[in-house]
Design brief:
about 260 residues, single chain, mainly alpha
């Protein structure tokens, strides 16, 4: 179809504001308060045509009327998938990233790995998932270095390379998960780091997707809260629910 800028120029020519700038400003502010889509579209319009200035009071009546007329006529800007382009760059520059992303898409998506075809929540879910795994691995390495210092094993304390620490990190995870480290640092790690993983990759991925969905907007967060209050006894922490419950929410609300 016609390019949005062409449609905007046509709408601008047709815009014959019958309201003054103050009234139009009030109308756009009300649209933003009552309609999440209108708010999103206003921001995109300002970014594309108004130098990124989103305060309607700083634009003239013609600019404001053009937006209102265009929005009411059904014209919409399509958001740029900047995250998708970032993912593509990661695929080009890092074979590990590319492999991890492809595996994630196979396990939790439709098997297709084109990031520009994925929604924002799915992409953010992958970031969360990989961030959790990275935090666990790094914390395990730190724990082993601390243990080496405590038991007088400078060789262990000095290990910093991923190659030399690979086996030690795995051992640290096993030891800490069994709760055999009595030092305060180990207790702190159990309570602060390891609860981010349930031990079930499928559940962890679903938890990440629900959290990403909540962060994507106030409306989405309220949807999850309402779902929890009405269906799940008010428990809003997704980690407190089982795979079947999380999957049902994702199927019904996130992927719908």
């Amino acid at each position: 179809g016609p390019h949005p800028r062409y449609l905007l120029s046509m709408a601008r020519k047709a815009a014959m504001p019958v309201l003054d700038q103050v009234s139009l400003t009030a109308q756009i502010k009300e649209m933003q308060r009552s309609d999440a889509t209108a708010k999103e579209q206003w921001w995109m319009y300002c970014d594309a045509e108004g130098a990124g200035v989103r305060d309607p009071a700083k634009h003239d009546a013609s600019f404001l009327a053009t937006f209102i007329n265009s929005y009411d006529s059904g014209m919409r800007f399509e958001p740029a998938n900047d995250l998708g382009e970032l993912f593509k760059e990661g695929q080009r520059k890092s074979s590990s990233w590319k492999q991890a992303w492809a595996s994630y898409c196979t396990l939790y998506g439709d098997g297709k790995s084109d990031p520009t075809k994925k929604d924002q929540a799915f992409l953010v879910g992958f970031f969360d998932y990989m961030g959790q795994r990275g935090a666990m691995a790094l914390s395990s390495m730190g724990a082993m270095a601390s243990i080496g210092s405590m038991v007088g094993m400078p060789g262990m304390a000095g290990m910093t390379g991923m190659g030399s620490m690979g086996g030690m990190a795995g051992m640290a995870r096993s030891t800490i998960s069994m709760g055999t480290l009595g030092a305060p640092a180990a207790k702190r790690m159990r309570t602060e780091v390891f609860p981010i993983s349930s031990g079930d990759p499928e559940k962890d991925a679903l938890v990440s997707r629900v959290k990403a969905y909540q962060r994507s907007g106030d409306e989405q967060k309220q949807t999850w809260w309402t779902y929890c209050d009405t269906m799940l006894g008010g428990k809003r922490d997704p980690a407190k629910h089982d795979v079947a419950t999380l999957q049902e929410f994702v199927d019904t609300h996130v992927d719908s």
